[in-house]
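Explain this one:

_____
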Amino acid sequence: MTRWRAPLAAAFALAATFGMHDPVQAQIFRCEAENGVPLFQNTPTGRNCKALDLSPLTSIPAPKLPAQAAPRNGGSGNAGPASGGASGTPSGSVSAGPGATGQGGNAATAGVPRIEPATQRARDSDRRRIIEDELKREESKLGELKRDFNAGEPERRGDERNYQKYLDRVEQMKTDIARSEGNVASLRRELGALRD
């Protein structure tokens, strides 16, 4: 509770300062202190006070979220009407599987569009084909990297007179091979999950 005291005190202080009037009606004055520093206050006390013409603040309300379906009381899920017409939920909007009582999953999936099985199969087939193509490319790339790596002794290039430059390239090749092996393993896992 103590963390709310400071904000509440500030809110009451603002209310007391401006009165309980509409914020649009509050008047702000620009005055000068003794040393010439500008002061902004709600009373014209001080030197060279001038009322400021401030445009009213525009407030935009937050958008309203769609109402969530409330769970039924009683816990059995069959206390309400079966057709759903009187409960406010359109009948047949959610198809619960065989043996379902209508509780739990219906509220969560009420706004989710259903996908036809043929459409889902086509999507799964496309996804499988894309992953297989990507796996073939990654395996081919890994084969080239290992061939160039030559079991840790790649051919030295003409621009590698400095031996450290050669060693740096060998280390980079090790990193590239490890990354490619990780990609291959990840793609194989994803493909295996699709086939299950």
